[in-house]
Write a structure and sequence with these properties.
Blueprint (H helix, E strand, L loop, with lengths): L4 E2 L7 E7 L11 H16 L4 E5 L2 H13 L7 E5 L7 H4 L2 E5 L2 E8 L2 H4 L9 H7 L7 E8 L6 E2 L4 E5 H7 L5 H12 L3 E5 L17 E5 L2 E5 L9 H13 L9 E5 L6 E2 L2 E2 L8 E3 L2 E6 L5 H11 L4 E6 L1 H4 L10 E4 L5
Parallel strand pairs: 2-3, 3-4, 6-7, 9-10, 12-13, 17-18
Antiparallel strand pairs: 1-5, 2-19, 5-6, 8-9, 11-12, 14-15, 16-17
Helix pairs in contact: 1-2
């Protein structure tokens, strides 16, 4: 008889975080120097709390990464560098989605299409298989699934409830009905139910409304979400509608979720292009929450909201203006690995 499978929540104990270092062959090339400083700060913060597995494509990039990480005070005793080719650094979407399988683990390897074919992704779509083949996760089973899905597009409470946005999944699978998509999600991720949000979109977001920029589980009973109270802002209507949807959601016992609304930062522009500056794109690590900040007056309030949502964890702000230039923030470029997984 097969072992039971479970998709653990992000707040459960972790073995480490998986990332990939930016280099001249990625879309970061134009601003590589400032990007490296931002990545190094994030890596340094992660190694304060747990191990970090960091992909680098070759010896030269590894040397550059080591220099930047040293300057950022990274704990090298918690760092493991892995050489592997890749197209870009968004490991939340191209990395493994790990299920617990009895006492072991299963690495789900969904087809990565670079958000519906927007960019080249041939190498990124091979990352999970390469990691498994090279033995980086011990005896964990590798399962390839020919269904387009990104880790940033789903949230789980660890107890069988999945949260996602209909727009994103429909864009990936326009030929499938909601019932068909929901059936695949339940079967592959071993979830009992799927909660859909119909609203929510950020300008500058090319993921088609990933849930991890909008609303996140903080516990089985708590949801943190990106709000907007500025009636003059173009996001006001969509995010107000999303907030109403969240208020209407119910837990399996019929009770409402406790909601924590994050403040709305002022627009961050790059040559006239608005960037997706969301506070909801935070990363939970052992004992802490790393959350993006943007040098905005709302940063302090966002940190305070997060402290109320995660009262037992240290809240650490990470400057992320350089990350959102490429349309993602710190959760987008990281993937947690559950405790017990060989790394």
């Amino acid at each position: 008889m097969s072992e039971p499978l479970r998709f653990p929540a992000e707040w459960e104990p972790q073995a480490g975080i998986l990332m990939a270092w930016p280099h001249a062959g990625t879309d970061w090339a134009e601003r590589l120097e400032t990007t490296a400083v931002c990545f190094a700060a994030l890596c340094g913060a992660i190694t304060r709390f747990e191990p970090l597995l960091l992909l680098v494509p070759d010896e030269s990039v590894e040397a550059d990464a080591r220099a930047a990480l040293t300057a950022a005070g990274c704990d090298f005793s918690r760092l493991r560098l892995i050489r592997m080719p890749y197209d870009d650094t968004w490991l939340r979407d191209s990395g493994p989605i790990t299920l617990r399988e009895g006492e072991g683990f299963r690495l789900l390897d969904f087809h990565f299409t670079a958000w519906g074919g927007k960019f080249e992704a041939g190498l990124d779509d091979q990352i999970v298989a390469r990691l498994a083949e090279q033995g980086h996760f011990g005896a964990a089973r590798h399962q390839r699934i020919e269904f387009a899905l990104e880790g940033g597009g789903i949230e789980t409470d660890g107890d069988g409830t999945l949260l996602s946005t209909w727009h994103c999944l429909h864009e990936r699978h326009p030929d499938k009905s909601r019932a068909e998509i929901e059936a695949v999600l339940k079967e592959t991720l071993h979830q009992h139910r799927v909660l859909w949000l119909e609203h929510g979109h950020l300008e500058g977001d090319d993921t088609d409304a990933h849930i991890d920029t909008l609303a996140r589980f903080a516990s089985p009973s708590r949801i943190v979400y990106q709000g907007c109270q500025d009636t003059a802002d173009s996001h006001y209507g969509e995010l107000q509608a999303m907030a109403a949807e969240l208020r209407a959601l119910r837990r399996t016992d019929g009770t409402p979720y406790e909601l924590f609304e994050l403040p709305w930062p002022q627009p961050v522009l790059d040559g006239g292009r608005r960037l997706a500056a969301s506070y909801a794109n935070f990363l939970i690590v052992n004992g802490a929450v790393l959350m993006p900040v943007y040098g905005d007056a709302a940063d302090a309030e966002a940190l305070a909201v997060m402290a109320r949502a995660f009262p037992s964890r240290e809240i650490v702000g990470i400057p992320c203006r350089d990350l959102i230039w490429q349309n993602g923030s710190l959760h987008c470029c990281t993937m947690q690995l559950p405790e017990g997984l060989s790394t």
